[in-house]
Amino acid sequence: MYIIAGLLAAALSWAGNRAALKLIGTKVIVVSAPLLEELAKSGISVLLNTSLVLTHGVFGIVEGLYDAWGSGFQGIKAGIISFLGHLLYGYVTYLVLLKYNLFFASVLAGYLVHMLWNIAVMKFLVTKRRVSY
Questions:
Q1: What's the whole-model pTM score?
Q2: CA-wise closest residue to 35 among 15, 17, 61
Q3: Which terminus of the chain, N or C, has less C-beta within 10 A?
């Protein structure tokens, strides 16, 4: 069931992120996208009563394949990092839910880690790529 949950979360997030990108612009990458993704992954996982961590992992595989598609070696590295990152967000979410039994607090914890990761990537990796061209 976690495969279905991860695929549904990926589809929902893709559609939501695409719409948000048109409305908000690139700020969506740092602020809105992680929130939408964490809510989708965790919410669908809980609704389907399946593994939070594995749902996040399936989502990470989908996002990783999307990142890697047509991007060569850099895309493959980004895809692997995406997969591992989403496993981490799922694990953080799971630990907070396990300890406090508060769904929104657990989603918030995963969101904060995800958002901080995106900030770091945008600041250090995307800037370096632009400068190196």
A1: 0.89
A2: 17
A3: C
